[in-house]
Amino acid sequence: MVIGMGALGCPVADLLARAGVGRLTLVDRDLVEMTNLQRQSLYCEDDARSGRPKAEGARRRLAAVNSSITVEAVTADLEPRSAEAVVLDGATGRPDVLIDGTDNYGTRFLVNDLSVKHAIPLVYGGAISTRGVSMTVRSHETPCLRCVFDQPARGAG
């Protein structure tokens, strides 16, 4: 499950689809905008003109990239009251791995907490300017985001 289909989630999902990962679930609440096109490679002008949800635009593109995999789109806002239902939804099944492509610390910590609670491995990634960070969380085996960062940074989006 790739959560966040922006500048980080797009290339991750694209490479996973091209590698032949059997099932991908793409989660994002946002709609494609023209300003996304220069850094979010799964979308085209038609997606932006039609106001297509990012998860659905990415699903369409990835289905064309590799027709032998199953790609599901979930247009949802991951927030405390709905996150567990989105991640553990019976229609998509329990994910083997959560991949954090989000752009805000609140959602990152929420995904981290779900990872720890349900023992689903999490791959966290972030990029600001020319710097990038990544971390893998395995419940009860490695530190989690809260272990390392304690709380979201003030003013961090």
Written account of the structure:
It is globular, with a radius of gyration of 15 Å. It has helices spanning 9-19, 45-49, 54-65, 83-87, 105-118, 145-149, and strands at 2-3, 23-27, 70-74, 98-100, 122-128, 131-137. It has 157 residues and is an alpha/beta fold. It has six helices and six strands, in the order βαβααβαβαββα. The chain has a six-stranded mixed β-sheet, sandwiched between helices.
Compile the SSE list and pairings.
Layout: E1 2-3, H1 9-19, E2 23-27, H2 45-49, H3 54-65, E3 70-74, H4 83-87, E4 98-100, H5 105-118, E5 122-128, E6 131-137, H6 145-149
Parallel strand pairs: 1-2, 1-4, 2-3, 4-5
Antiparallel strand pairs: 5-6
User: In terms of per-residue confidence, which ranges show pLDDT below 50 for 5 or more consecutive residues?
Assistant: none
Query: How many distinct helices?
Result: 6
- SS content category: alpha/beta
Radius of gyration computed on alpha carbons: 15 Å
Strand residues, percent:
15-25%
Measured distance between first and last alpha carbons? 22 Å
Q: What is the N-to-C succession of helices and strands?
A: EHEHHEHEHEEH
What's the assembly state of these chains?
A: single chain
Q: Helical residue percent? A: 25-40%
- What is the average per-residue confidence, as pLDDT, rounded to a whole number? 90
Major beta sheet, specifics?
6 strands, mixed
What is the general shape?
globular
